[in-house]
């Protein structure tokens, strides 16, 4: 298993794979003279694991041009590709919100000051009115009162405009926050839930004790596909398969990228027979798809998927459910692939 692109990053490499990545990362850190700080290590680790294609492309382009990999460059790559620009987006939203609140408070104090000035003016006019019996003095008082009321009308008008602007700004920031929140839950390649979000959903279902089933899908011989047609085409196949899962997901059935070429679905309030039928349908549809290389119309041959199902039983934990689905998936692979099993 590999890393699923998400924020914060989630790594699922097995012990041996992670150790091998460590070895290769250290070699690269040494070759390009980048100190093994946590940031530099994360960048090299993601580079050698090959899971973060955008990061790999960016480093390869630099290396081809003999551009140095300086600490500034690794810091930039880390923020852009490992943290996926999230801290910057959150900080922008935060700063935007601070600005709106500061502006609103400033406008309110301005109106308060104008109101208090107007209040003072009107009180003075009130006192003068009581003893006023001169027509000219009365005219002056009237225009004074008019000026005061005009002032307060203007200030409250300005406040209204400013408050409308602030509300619009706050709505935009709220949308940005929603987008950031959504991005933190989404796998960027497939658009499905990422591993972190999937784990949360699975945990919630287990603690509620609802009836549900977990299906783990693993595309067959995916390495061979990548090796024969390239990683980009492999990505397209993953996206195509994800779209099949998406078409079977809804408000209650959840589809997610489990890790690497493994995808998962949670079928909620769905009995084993029904889950099995839907999973079979997905498997058949995928096997029947005649996928072609873009542009050349060259067929890439049949691509299939194996699946394993486990169904929630009392006292199951996310780990025990995943283990059973994984065993069922293993059986599907061992029995010849392109099939569904359950345990
Ligand atoms: N294109 C692409 N390949 C990926 C991605 N994530 C993992 N892979 C590749 O998926 C392959 C998985 O290979 P294996 O675990 O050996 O399994 P397999 O070749 O699918 O064979 P079986 O599972 O036994 O049928 C590896 O070559 C990974 O590099 C991805 O996001 N995109």
Automatic annotation (TrEMBL):
Pfam families the record matches: GGDEF
Keyword check for Ribonucleoprotein: no
Entry keyword set: Coiled coil
EC numbers, comma separated: 2.7.7.65
Catalytic activity: 2 GTP = 3',3'-c-di-GMP + 2 diphosphate
Chain coiled-coil ranges: 156-183
Gene3D superfamilies the UniProt entry points to: 3.30.70.270
Keyword Metal-binding appears in the UniProt entry: no
PROSITE patterns registered for this protein in UniProt: GGDEF
Enzyme class, UniProt record, top EC level: transferase
Domain of life: Bacteria
Domain named GGDEF: residues: 210-343
PANTHER family in the record: DIGUANYLATE CYCLASE DGCM-RELATED, REGULATORY COMPONENTS OF SENSORY TRANSDUCTION SYSTEM
Listed name of the protein: diguanylate cyclase
Organism phylogeny: Bacteria, Pseudomonadati, Pseudomonadota, Gammaproteobacteria, Thiotrichales
């Amino acid at each position: 298993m590999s890393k699923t692109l998400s924020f914060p990053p989630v790594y699922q490499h097995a012990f041996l794979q992670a150790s091998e990545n460590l070895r290769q990362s250290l070699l690269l850190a040494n070759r390009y003279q980048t100190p093994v700080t946590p940031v530099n290590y994360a960048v090299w680790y993601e580079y050698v694991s090959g899971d973060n294609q955008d990061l790999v492309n960016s480093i390869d382009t630099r290396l081809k041009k003999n551009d140095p990999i300086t600490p500034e460059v690794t810091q930039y790559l880390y923020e852009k590709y490992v943290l996926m620009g999230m801290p910057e987006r959150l900080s922008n939203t935060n700063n935007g919100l601070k600005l709106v609140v500061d502006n609103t408070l400033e406008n309110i104090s301005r109106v308060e000051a104008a109101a208090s000035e107007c209040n003072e003016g009107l009180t003075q006019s009130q006192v003068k009115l009581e003893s006023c019996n001169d027509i000219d003095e009365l005219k002056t008082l009237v225009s004074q009162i008019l000026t005061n009321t005009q002032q307060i009308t203007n200030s409250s008008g300005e406040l209204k405009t400013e408050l409308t602007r602030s509300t619009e700004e706050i709505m935009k920031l709220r949308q940005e926050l929603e987008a950031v929140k959504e991005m933190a839950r989404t796998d960027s390649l497939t658009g499905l839930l990422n591993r972190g979000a999937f784990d949360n959903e699975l945990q919630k279902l287990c603690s509620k004790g609802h009836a549900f089933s977990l299906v783990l899908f693993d595309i067959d011989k995916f390495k061979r596909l990548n090796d024969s047609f390239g990683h980009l085409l492999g990505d397209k196949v993953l996206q195509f398969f994800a779209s099949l899962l998406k078409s079977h997901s809804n408000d209650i059935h959840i589809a997610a990228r489990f890790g690497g070429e493994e995808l998962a679905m949670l079928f909620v309030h769905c009995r084993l027979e029904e889950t099995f039928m839907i999973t079979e349908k997905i498997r058949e549809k995928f096997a029947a798809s005649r996928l072609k290389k873009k542009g050349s119309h060259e067929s890439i041959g049949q691509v299939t998927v194996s699946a394993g199902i486990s169904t929630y039983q009392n006292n199951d934990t996310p780990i025990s459910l995943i283990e059973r689905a994984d065993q069922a998936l293993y059986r599907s692979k061992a029995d010849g692939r392109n099939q569904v099993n359950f345990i």
